[in-house]
Specification:
364 residues; alpha+beta; eight-stranded antiparallel sheet; 6 helices; 19% helix
Length: 364
C-alpha cells in the first residue's frame, strides 16, 4: 500500500509487526506505585500503571466516553479495588479494563456499566523489566505464548539505555544484527580499533526458541573491552528471538554479563531500542559504571545515526536494498521466521522453527 502498510493477516499487523507476542514496555523502576504514564506501542496508546500496592497493569489509553487519555487521570479506590479515573467525567476503570463507576448517572442500575470496557494488555514483570502482550484480536487478551524468561533468577539491571530509531521494526532488527558493520560504525579504540584491520570470521549458528543462536565461542581477539573487563578466558553466546529480542551472554571463570536488547515498535517508522545489562561477580564493572553507561549510549547512538543517514537513501529508492552472501543470512532468517509465525497463527498450529544449523563466514 502507498503508506507502507499491507493487508492485515493473522499473527501480523498491517504495519508488519508480529501480534500474539510479548514486547518490552518499560523498566520497572520507571513505574512508581500509584502512578501511570502513556507510551505508544505498536501504533497504539498504552497506559502503563502501577497500583499503590505495587501491581503493574496496562490499558488502552483512551476513555471510550470522550476519548480522553486515561493516563491523565488519577488512581482511586472503588469498592475496595484500584481503578483509574478519567479526568474528564470521572469514569473509573479497574485493572482489567472494566468500567467500575460512572458518577454522572442518576440511577446507576439503569445503565450496564460493567459492559463498558477498555482494552487490557496482559503484563509480565520480571528482573526489573515490564513486558506487555499484544494479542492479534484485542477482544482475546489471554496470552497464547509464554512470557519472556531469560533465566536471570532474581537479578536486577545494573543499567538501562535506550534510543528511538527512525526506522521500521524490520529495518531496525536487520541493522542491529548485521555482523559486518562493526568495524565501520563502531570503531572506538576500546571496542574495535581500525588498526586491527578486517579478519575472517567463521561462526556456527544453531536453531533456538523462535529464533537462532550464535553458539558459545571465544570472542574475537580484537574485542578489547571483553579482555579489559573479564580477563582472557572468556566465552560468549548470542541469541535472537522474534518478535525482537537479542541477548548476549559473556562468561568468564566466575563473572557473567548478560545484555538484552529489546525492540519495540512505536510507529511505522519509529522503533524503541532498549538495552538492559546485568552482571554478577564482577565488582570491577560496578566501579566502571560511570564509564560503561555513556559508552553504551554512544554505541547505540552510532547505530541510530546510521539509521538516520540510511533513511536518506530510502527516500529515493523504493523496495529493499541488495543482500549478498553470509552477512545477510540472518536478515533472511528473520523474515523467514516472521512468515512462519504468521502462517502458524493463520493455520491454528504450533510454530515450527524453519532455521537449520549452519556455519556463516564473513570478514569484519
Amino acid at each position: 500500500m502507498a503508506d507502507g502498510t499491507l493487508p492485515k493477516s493473522a499473527g501480523v499487523s498491517a504495519e508488519g509487526w508480529l501480534t500474539d507476542s510479548w514486547y518490552f514496555a518499560c523498566a520497572s523502576s520507571s513505574l512508581k506505585p500509584g502512578e501511570q504514564f502513556r507510551r505508544i506501542i505498536l501504533g497504539q496508546p498504552v497506559m502503563l500503571a502501577r497500583t499503590v500496592k505495587g501491581e503493574a497493569f496496562a490499558l488502552r489509553d483512551i476513555c471510550p466516553h470522550r476519548l480522553v487519555p486515561l493516563s491523565e487521570g488519577r488512581q482511586v479506590d472503588t469498592d475496595g479495588q484500584p481503578t483509574i479515573q478519567c479526568p474528564y467525567h470521572g469514569w473509573r476503570f479497574n485493572t482489567s479494563g472494566q468500567c467500575a463507576h460512572m458518577p454522572s448517572l442518576e440511577k446507576p442500575e439503569d445503565f450496564a456499566t460493567d459492559k463498558v470496557r477498555v482494552r487490557r494488555y496482559p503484563v509480565h514483570e520480571t528482573n526489573g523489566m515490564i513486558f506487555i502482550y499484544a494479542a492479534d484480536n484485542p477482544r482475546e487478551d489471554e496470552p497464547t505464548l509464554p512470557a519472556p524468561d531469560f533465566g536471570l533468577g532474581a537479578q536486577q539491571p545494573k543499567f538501562i539505555v535506550h534510543q528511538t530509531f527512525n526506522a521500521h521494526m524490520d529495518d531496525a532488527v536487520v541493522g542491529l544484527m548485521d555482523p559486518a558493520h562493526v568495524p565501520f560504525v563502531h570503531d572506538q579504540w576500546w571496542w574495535r580499533p581500525p588498526s586491527v584491520g578486517l579478519k575472517l570470521k567463521e561462526k556456527p549458528f544453531i536453531p533456538a526458541t523462535r529464533g537462532w543462536a550464535l553458539a558459545r565461542h571465544q570472542p574475537s581477539s580484537n574485542s578489547l573491552a571483553y579482555k579489559m573487563l573479564m580477563g582472557s578466558e572468556v566465552t560468549t553466546e548470542i541469541v535472537f528471538q522474534i518478535p525482537g529480542f537479542r541477548w548476549e551472554v559473556i562468561e568468564a571463570k566466575k563473572a557473567r554479563i548478560f545484555t538484552l536488547t529489546c525492540l519495540t515498535p512505536v510507529e511505522l517508522k519509529k522503533t524503541r531500542i532498549t538495552q538492559i545489562t546485568f552482571w554478577n561477580n564482577a565488582p570491577f564493572l560496578d566501579l566502571a559504571l560511570p564509564v560503561l553507561i555513556p559508552a553504551a549510549r554512544k554505541f547505540l547512538g552510532q547505530d541510530g545515526h546510521m539509521v538516520d543517514i540510511q533513511n536518506e537513501g530510502m527516500r529515493f529508492h523504493k523496495g529493499p536494498g541488495m543482500w549478498i552472501d553470509d552477512i545477510d543470512v540472518q536478515a533472511k532468517w528473520y523474515l523467514t521466521l516472521k512468515k512462519e509465525w504468521a502462517a502458524s497463527r493463520a493455520e491454528g498450529r504450533e510454530f515450527a522453527n524453519p532455521i537449520e544449523a549452519r556455519t556463516l563466514r564473513w570478514r569484519s
